[in-house]
Design a protein that fits this description.
The protein is α+β, with helices and mostly antiparallel strands. It has helices at about 5-15, 25-35, 40-50, 75, 135-145, and strands at about 55-60, 65, 70-75, 95-100, 105-110, 120-125, 130. About 30% of the residues lie in helices and about 20% in strands. Strands 1, 2, 3, 4, 5, 6 and 7 form a 7-stranded antiparallel β-sheet that branches. α1 (about 5-15) runs parallel beside α5.
Length: about 150
């Protein structure tokens, strides 16, 4: 099962009522142009097929999945962006897509063309990589939320 399909099934079975109309290819491409990136394929599939589109959508595990219009770079949110291990020159290419318990911490995906590409970073008191790709993040998210928080 593809990551976005697993997430949709998880939300449906939990009765979260998260509204996920499909984003168009043009909307996703516009977002890529805005940030100057090409999204990793599994994350791009999520945006096209499962990302919430209307406001904030919190699931039963207290994760708010950001709608496509809210996705932002860590640098745009914080005037003093965190140091990004492996890609300190490009914090703007780490895009935040979800947060936990009204921003106790958040998750960002690396979208630059470095060895960090596709990795998921937790942003909070102890930032760091928590998943090698979006698919692994979704698996952990559904099965073991505790593994995705700050160390």
């Amino acid at each position: 099962m593809r990551p976005h399909e697993a997430l949709l099934q998880f939300w449906l079975e939990a009765g979260n009522g998260i509204d996920t109309p499909h984003a168009s290819e043009a909307e996703v491409a516009k977002l890529e142009v805005h940030f100057g990136v090409r999204f990793p394929e599994d994350f791009r599939d999520y945006l096209l097929n499962a990302a919430p589109r209307l406001g904030e959508s919190m699931d039963k595990n207290l994760t708010t999945w950001w709608d496509i219009s809210r996705i932002a770079s860590e640098q745009a949110i914080n005037s003093q962006p965190i140091a990004i291990d492996g890609d300190p020159a490009n914090p703007h290419k780490y895009l935040i897509f979800a947060d936990y318990m009204i921003w106790c911490w958040a998750w960002a995906i690396a979208c630059g063309d470095t060895d960090q590409r596709g990795k998921i970073m937790v942003l909070g008191d102890s930032p760091g990589i928590v998943a090698d790709n979006f698919a692994t993040f979704v698996d952990f998210r559904i099965e073991d939320i505790d593994s995705l928080g700050p160390a």
